């Protein structure tokens, strides 16, 4: 008989019980989650909202990208050929067909319409063309067939006040509208479509071809004359995929912070149970595993629910996104791999969020755990050093990025965000330290925040991040709008201005008799009375009376109008601007009424840089220029020629229109009536073109940020007040009224909301100032209303809602929960 050594079976058993012990711990953790899921319902709901937002954001970001199909269709390259010389145009199109084989030719003819400032692009395109299919879609009716038929886009139909079956004057003949069309890849592309087989001679054509850039350049060298050529740009969705992943990463960071706040409370609630498990021999790894399994379960439930809700929200809101994006969107054209990766990362992130509370609980001594004593918060000095290091690294990276280096911007933004989030645990004790002299209930609430600052800090970080994301969209969009307005002006005209022109704007001014001018003046006065214009300023341009210009094809002959622009080298084109003859009204309009103009000054203008007189027989004539202050409106007559310059060159003034200024915004009805009068008189009217505004985006971001922050607050405040039930029992036993419970809850919610709003907005401006340090002017456009709603509205709403909802006597006051 062989004796078995004592302890041999124990030595063979893995340390800590091995896989069987881990399976038992996992089963126990799952049972705990199933039993206590109602206590974690708010955390699951918040995680679901975060995953919903990430899923919807990925879908919307993916589909917001403008598509190059709007210009290229299915082609790789395009060639634009001017149609000034019909023979040369035909020869170049034939050469392109011979070089590339299959091509798609789209003709363009810009036809003026009485009463409208902008001519209509009459496009001759084959709906069954080899490459142009994605550029054309039929919405109603049918495509035109024959010279007397026409299809129009919605915008052109509104401008012409025409619908299906109506006849519209376009060009030299009336045409029947037989269809409504659109460019699916660009819903802002407005045009009229004609049958290519019966179209008028085009003024220019676009030739769509397949092939690479080298083939296009080789073809260019075989053709005489100018050709404008473009290659399809790289797919912007590639860039947006990276942006979407970054967006998902930020969203998941918010998920982890929200989850961490909930898991800290879960760990504290289960502290006695975990202490008993440790007393029975469970290792630290087993204790950590309990909370990690809980985190994975919460993450899985929230991920499945959030993804389903996010996809449903996308299907509902896709139409609104389509309108904002300006192109048609396939409802199921989504970045499925990215969404799948986001789901996986959400579960991993929720699990990782449980790791820190699990680590803290596992290190808690058994006696402290059994007594449910909260763990000692980390030293504030260590947190301060970490915060300072992160903020310094983040701001340094943002400054070095100059706002144009993506890797440094990403690193700087992440470090700055983390640095701001680490400020939370420092701000809570500072706020609690200033509670002297306040009512007892307020002091007790602030003391509870400092006492439980680990979980409050995690919640504060989540609130700060939610507010920071909202503030970043609000401030960033305001800065972008400021820059775009600086670049493009405040618009073409103010909403109280109208610019009446005689005929279409042309560089050739026809001669008119005195009787014709008197009739046109009478029509202008009628239009001014219709819109209630208080000021009517005549507009004259300088014309070279000694020369006659045949004008454009189909246009009247006349005298060339003097213009001004930047000089260009031979063979290059440049943009010119009309020169109006100085009069007192134009000087007042440009804010320089009564100024003395030197006799040797030729031009007063807001244009800067090297300038030359254009559209005159002589070339390279440099005027003597005096600079006017800029108004910001691009359509104002802000380039003026002096009478002295007219006399020196022998030019004559010719009436070209009138500028109307009302003392109120011109209404849509007034504008429609004025356009009808102008059309009948052969005049055109230019009115304000509204620039796209990002106000709706800022409002949406503000509402979303406030709602998300309120959701975090609802979870955190409920958990913190639940953990402070012992204090409530004491207060209730001492005779404290319902008002005290309301004050406790309202103070907790208001303090966290205030700190989160301040940290979020301050962190946003800190990061943007680092990235835009060379030009801080855009940050001067402060969206006051939206920031006040975030920084002031959030604390008020949070405190008010907490006050209203905290009046009911909690059940935990009448009976103590047994572990």
From TrEMBL:
Protein topology in the membrane: Multi-pass membrane protein
For this UniProt record, the keywords arranged alphabetically read as follows: Cell membrane, Membrane, Transmembrane, Transmembrane helix
Gene Ontology CC: plasma membrane
Q: Which residues form the ABC3 transporter permease C-terminal domain?
A: 247-365
Tell me the superkingdom of the source: Bacteria
Q: Give the GO molecular function terms.
A: transmembrane transporter activity
Q: Name one Pfam family in it.
A: FtsX
Q: Does the keyword Transmembrane helix apply?
A: yes
Give the UniProt subcellular location, in the record's own words.
Cell membrane
Mark the transmembrane ranges.
41-62, 239-266, 287-316, 336-358, 379-401, 407-433, 454-475, 701-720, 748-772, 784-806
| Family in the record | Belongs to the ABC-4 integral membrane protein family.
Protein name in UniProt: ABC3 transporter permease C-terminal domain-containing protein
Species the sequence originates in: Micromonospora acroterricola
């Amino acid at each position: 008989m062989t004796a078995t050594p004592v302890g041999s079976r124990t030595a063979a058993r893995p340390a800590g019980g091995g896989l069987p012990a881990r399976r038992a711990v996992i089963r126990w953790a799952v049972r705990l989650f199933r039993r206590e899921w109602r206590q974690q319902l708010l955390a699951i709901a918040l995680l679901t909202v975060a995953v919903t937002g990430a899923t919807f954001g990925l879908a919307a970001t993916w589909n917001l990208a403008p598509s190059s199909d709007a210009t290229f269709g299915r082609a790789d390259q395009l060639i634009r050929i001017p149609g000034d010389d019909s023979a040369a145009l035909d020869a170049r199109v034939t050469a392109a067909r011979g070089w590339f084989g299959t091509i798609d030719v789209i003709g363009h003819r810009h036809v003026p319409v009485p009463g409208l400032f902008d001519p209509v692009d009459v496009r001759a395109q084959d709906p069954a063309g080899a490459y142009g299919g994605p550029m054309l879609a039929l919405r109603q009716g049918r495509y035109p067939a024959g010279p007397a038929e026409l299809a129009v886009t919605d915008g052109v139909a509104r401008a012409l006040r025409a619908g299906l079956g109506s006849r519209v004057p376009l060009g030299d003949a009336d045409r029947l509208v037989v269809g409504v069309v659109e460019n699916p890849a660009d819903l802002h592309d407005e045009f009229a479509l004609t049958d290519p087989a019966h179209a008028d001679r085009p003024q220019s054509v676009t030739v769509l071809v397949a092939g690479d850039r080298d083939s296009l350049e080789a073809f260019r060298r075989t053709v005489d004359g100018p050709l404008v050529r473009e290659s399809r740009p790289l797919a912007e969705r590639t860039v947006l995929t990276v942006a979407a992943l970054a967006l998902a990463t930020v969203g998941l960071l918010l998920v982890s912070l929200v989850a961490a706040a909930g898991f800290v409370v879960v760990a504290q609630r289960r502290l006695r149970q975990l202490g008993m498990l440790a007393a029975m021999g469970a290792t630290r790894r087993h204790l950590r595993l309990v909370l990690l399994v809980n985190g994975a379960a919460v993450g899985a439930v929230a991920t499945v629910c959030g993804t389903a809700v996010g996809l449903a929200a996308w299907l509902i809101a896709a139409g609104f996104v389509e309108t904002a994006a300006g192109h048609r969107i396939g409802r199921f054209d989504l970045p499925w791999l990215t969404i799948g990766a986001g789901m996986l990362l959400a579960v991993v992130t929720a699990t990782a969020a449980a790791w820190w509370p699990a680590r803290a609980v596992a290190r808690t001594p058994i006696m402290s755990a059994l007594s449910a004593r909260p763990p000692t918060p980390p030293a504030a000095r260590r947190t301060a050093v970490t915060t300072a290091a992160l903020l310094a690294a983040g701001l340094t990276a943002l400054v070095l990025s100059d706002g144009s280096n993506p890797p440094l911007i990403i690193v700087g933004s992440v470090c700055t965000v983390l640095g701001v989030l680490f400020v939370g645990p420092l701000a809570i004790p500072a706020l609690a330290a200033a509670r002297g002299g306040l009512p007892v209930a307020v002091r007790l609430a602030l003391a509870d925040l400092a006492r439980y600052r680990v979980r409050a800090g995690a919640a504060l970080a989540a609130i700060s991040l939610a507010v920071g994301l909202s503030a970043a969209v609000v401030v960033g969009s305001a800065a972008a709008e400021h820059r775009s307005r600086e670049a493009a002006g405040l618009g073409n005209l103010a909403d109280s201005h109208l610019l009446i022109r005689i005929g279409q704007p042309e560089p050739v001014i026809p001669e008119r008799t005195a009787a014709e001018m008197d009739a046109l003046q009478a029509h202008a006065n009628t239009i001014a009375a219709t819109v209630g214009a208080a000021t009517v300023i005549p507009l004259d341009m300088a014309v070279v009376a000694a020369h006659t210009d045949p004008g454009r094809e189909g246009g009247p002959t006349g005298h060339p109008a003097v213009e001004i622009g930047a000089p260009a080298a031979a063979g290059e084109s440049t943009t010119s601007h009309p020169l109006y003859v100085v009069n007192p009204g134009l000087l007042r309009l440009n804010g320089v009424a009564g100024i003395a103009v030197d006799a040797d000054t030729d031009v007063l203008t807001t244009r800067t840089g090297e300038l030359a007189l254009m559209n005159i027989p002589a070339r390279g004539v440099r005027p003597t220029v005096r600079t006017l202050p800029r108004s910001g409106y691009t359509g104002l007559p802000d380039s003026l020629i002096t009478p002295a310059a007219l006399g020196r060159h022998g030019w004559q003034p010719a009436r070209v229109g009138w500028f109307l200024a009302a003392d109120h915004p011109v209404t849509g009805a007034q504008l429609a009536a004025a356009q009808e009068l102008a059309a009948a008189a052969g005049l055109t009217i230019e009115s304000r073109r509204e620039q796209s505004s990002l106000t709706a985006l800022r409002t949406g971001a503000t509402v979303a940020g406030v709602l998300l922050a309120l959701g975090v607050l609802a979870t955190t405040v409920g958990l913190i007040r639940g953990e402070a039930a012992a204090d409530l029992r004491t207060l209730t036993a001492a005779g404290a009224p319902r008002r005290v419970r309301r004050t406790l809850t309202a103070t907790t919610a208001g303090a966290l909301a205030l700190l989160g709003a301040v940290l979020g907005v301050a962190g946003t401006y800190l990061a943007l100032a680092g990235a835009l340090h060379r030009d801080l002017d855009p940050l001067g456009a402060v969206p006051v209303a939206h920031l006040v709603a975030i920084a002031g509205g959030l604390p008020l709403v949070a405190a008010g809602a907490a006050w209203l909802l905290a009046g009911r006597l909690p059940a935990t006051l009448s009976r103590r929960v047994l572990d």
